[in-house]
UniProtKB/TrEMBL annotation:
Keywords: Oxidoreductase. It comes from Kordiimonas sediminis. It comes from the Bacteria. Residues 460-488 are annotated as: Disordered. Residues 23-499 form the Aldehyde dehydrogenase domain. Residues 479-488 have a biased composition (Gly residues). InterPro entries: Ald_DH/histidinol_DH, Ald_DH_C, Ald_DH_N, Aldehyde_DH_dom, HotDog_dom_sf, MaoC-like_dom, PaaN-DH. GO terms for molecular function: oxidoreductase activity, acting on the aldehyde or oxo group of donors, NAD or NADP as acceptor. Residues 540-655 form the MaoC-like domain. This is Bifunctional aldehyde dehydrogenase/enoyl-CoA hydratase.
Length: 676
């Protein structure tokens, strides 16, 4: 079977067979892969001119719903994807991470997109900056989708998740993508991709697929495109030399090999719960996906007095790992992705052996459960020990991308920090300790060299997702050797596919651009009270000026006794006089809020369903008994909720006194019905 690419809105079958993709356990050829004959320039152009405008027209909420629907379509394909995944050497639990993890990434971005981004096509980043004394010249950062195509080059180890973790933020940002999976597992990516296309949910041109090489694609990149890459550091360095990156400043986001560390804290003894947790986690990271995880624990950093216990415990547990064809009964660890990959890993382990003692050697031939050692890429776990890791830089730089880890002893927390940082930049590290002082020392000590740090102890272990699981909510990526990228991390990742622009102008200009009423903008007069208007009738800038109310001493005392808030500044003449801020008795802030509501509320049943919150409250000037207040209520922002029959209205509320001075300001949130 020839794998197909998806280009210019059609499936494309290459004329020639291309390179074979083999079942990782049996060595049988499953498919061939080639991109011969694809017009890469036209693919980029198609993405820019067909996919990009369609996505840009959609709001973040519409794109978020799109992600959810694609995820739902893929859920129906799970059985088929699991079958194909076994051929890549993945066990059922490995596949769960890849397939279910990929789908859930779409769901998480869908929900975050709707909760944390506006229902409009561009993003307002941060707050308005006051650039002039009089407030007539202001600034605001916004982010708009880049106008090019995101080219995603993925690694072989997670053929579904690897594609989806990059696609989710890209599509949510409003940018089309071209996906290029690693050839050795591209048949699984191709199948998942087919389900995404067949769902009919994505606009034409939003995603394209290259099975095979990328040809002259890089020659046609422009400054609006982005390339994201996952794979080896050597390929990343080679690709980065292309003029697209050196001359046209096309962003290149890389996620490469890293030698991730796990540290057992100095406080831990053989009997602490953290000891067992550490052993379980190191074994899990060495054997899950046969150690072919960018986040796997390659360096096991252990207090010197516990080395013997750690070795014994790891040998005992690793010895129970049944290696074989993932389709066979009882198999806990599958083969590596290919025979080439096994050879590569054995070579790297042999390199490491020059600097380490062998604790457990998995590189020799063995009886494979349900498989044949020569036909499949089977390999048992290998455990090494380096006695002087501070003086041996090689053990911090040679990566065996398989079921292998090196134990390294240390004497002080400072040394453990130095060892962790000798990896010169990692995706993740973990720390097993129950001592908060060790936590703060390690966080400050290794933070700058790591993308993520998982601190595990008896409290969090039960619910923890563990050392090796990147989560869509949290940053995935690391500095230095790890490539310097940031593939995930909630809305942070979405911003990589958008351009930040500083908009400077008058309040009215900023109101128009941000779709949010900015202080100083025009106030729109209304023919009816704003609480009588449905969500669809309210306009940004609609303003109500209330009548006045004088605050009396009786009001203050009544409120104090009624609520129980008899704080001295409201009730004790002498003590209040001595207060340097007030100098006399003042009205409660909460009394002001209540009076403000009493002034602006229209009481009859109507489109306002509920007051759902209040944000950014500031009391800017005290209100004294005898002061007269009034309120200005302005519609600041409207957020329609997809598939809901109400929307959220954000009101700017300002309370002023008889001199026109602002006493309080806040944003009030209401839910208003859409039609009546
Ligand atoms: P590679 O760096 O060889 O390949 C990664 C991706 O780049 C694949 O899609 C590959 O496609 C593509 N690629 C390679 N050369 C080019 C090129 N000249 N132009 C365009 N695309 C290219 O890594 P592998 O997947 O072979 O894995 C090798 C090593 O990478 C592992 O041993 C491990 O060290 C590291 N790795 C790191 C990962 C991480 O997440 N940090 C994940 C997986 C691997 P093709 O397959 O068609 O060659």
């Amino acid at each position: 079977m020839k794998l197909q690419s998806y280009a210019l809105g059609e499936w494309y079958t290459p004329p020639l067979d291309g390179s074979p993709i083999k079942d990782a356990s049996t060595g049988e050829t499953i498919a061939t892969v080639s991109s011969d004959g694809l017009d890469f320039k036209a693919m980029l152009e198609y993405g820019r001119t067909v996919g990009a405008p369609a996505l840009r027209k959609m709001t973040f909420h519409e794109r978020a719903i799109m992600l959810k629907n694609v995820g739902l379509a893929l859920t129906k394909a799970k059985d088929e994807l699991y079958e194909l995944s076994y051929q890549t050497g993945a066990t059922k639990s490995d596949t769960w991470v890849d397939v279910d993890g990929g789908i859930s990434t779409f769901f998480v971005y869908s929900s975050k997109g709707r909760r944390e981004m506006p229902n409009q096509p561009w993003y307002v980043d941060g707050d308005v900056e006051q650039l002039s004394r009089g407030g007539t010249f202001l600034g605001q950062h916004i982010m708009v989708p880049r106008r090019g195509v995101a080219v995603h080059i993925d690694a072989f180890n997670f053929p579904v998740w690897g594609m989806m973790e990059k696609l989710a933020p890209t599509l949510l940002a409003g940018m089309p993508a071209i996906v290029k999976p690693a050839s050795s597992t591209a048949h699984l990516t191709e199948k998942a991709f087919k389900y995404m296309i067949d769902s009919g949910v994505l606009p034409e041109g939003a995603i394209q697929l290259i099975c095979g090489r990328t040809g002259d694609l890089f020659d046609h990149l422009t400054c609006q495109d982005v390339v994201t890459f996952t794979g080896s550091a050597s390929t990343a360095h080679y690709l980065q030399k292309h003029p697209a990156f050196t001359e046209k400043a096309v962003p290149f986001v890389a996620e490469c090999d890293s030698l991730n560390a796990s540290i057992l804290g100095l406080d831990v003894t053989k009997d602490s719960p953290e000891f067992d947790l550490f052993i379980k986690e190191v074994v899990r990271e060495m054997t899950a996906k046969a150690g072919q995880k960018c986040t796997a624990i390659r360096r096991t950093i252990v207090p010197r007095n516990l080395v013997a216990d750690v070795k014994d415990a790891l040998i005992a547990r690793l010895g129970k790992t049944t290696v074989g064809d993932p389709r066979a009964e009882g198999v806990r660890m599958g083969p590596l992705a290919s025979l080439d990959q096994r050879e590569e890993v054995i070579n790297r382990i042999n390199d490491l052996k020059e600097y380490c003692d062998v604790v457990l050697d998995g590189t020799t031939e063995f009886d494979v459960s349900g498989g044949d050692y020569k036909a499949g890429a089977f390999l048992k776990p290998t455990l090494l020990y380096c006695d002087a890791p501070l003086e041996t830089p090689e053990v911090h730089s040679i990566e065996a991308f398989g079921p292998a880890s090196t134990i390294m002893p240390y004497d002080t927390t400072e040394d453990a920090i130095t060892l962790a940082n000798m990896g010169e930049g990692s995706l993740v590290a973990s720390l097993f300790t129950y001592d908060p002082e060790i936590v703060s020392d390690v966080v400050m000590g290794i933070g700058a060299y790591h993308g993520r740090l998982v601190v595990l102890d008896r409290t969090s272990a039960g619910e923890s997702t563990g050392h090796g699981s990147p989560l869509p909510h949290m940053k995935h990526g690391g500095p230095g050797r790890a490539g310097g990228g940031e593939e995930q991390g909630g809305i942070r990742a979405v911003k990589h596919y958008m351009q930040r622009i500083a908009i400077q102008g008058s309040p009215d200009v900023l109101t128009k651009v941000t779709n949010k009423w900015v202080s100083g903008s025009k106030e729109l007069e209304m023919d009816a009270h704003p609480f009588r208007k449905t969500f669809d009738e309210i306009k940004i800038g609609d303003t109500l000026h209330t009548k006045e109310r004088t605050v009396t001493l009786e009001d203050v005392e009544h409120f104090a006794n009624f609520t129980g808030d008899t704080f001295y500044a409201h009730m004790d003449e002498e003590a209040a006089a001595a207060n340097p801020i007030f100098g006399a008795r003042v009205a409660h802030g909460y009394l002001l809020l209540s009076f403000a509501a009493g002034l602006f509320v229209d009481p009859a049943p109507g489109p306002v369903l509920a007051n759902v919150g209040l944000e950014g409250l500031k009391f800017t000037k005290p209100v004294y008994p005898g002061d007269t207040i009034k309120v200005r209520l302005v519609c600041k922002q409207r957020t329609a909720r997809m598939n809901e029959d109400f929307g959220e209205v954000r009101w700017d509320v300002t309370v002023t006194n008889q001199d026109g001075d602002e006493c309080a300001n806040y944003e009030l949130l209401t839910h208003n019905t859409r039609v009546q």
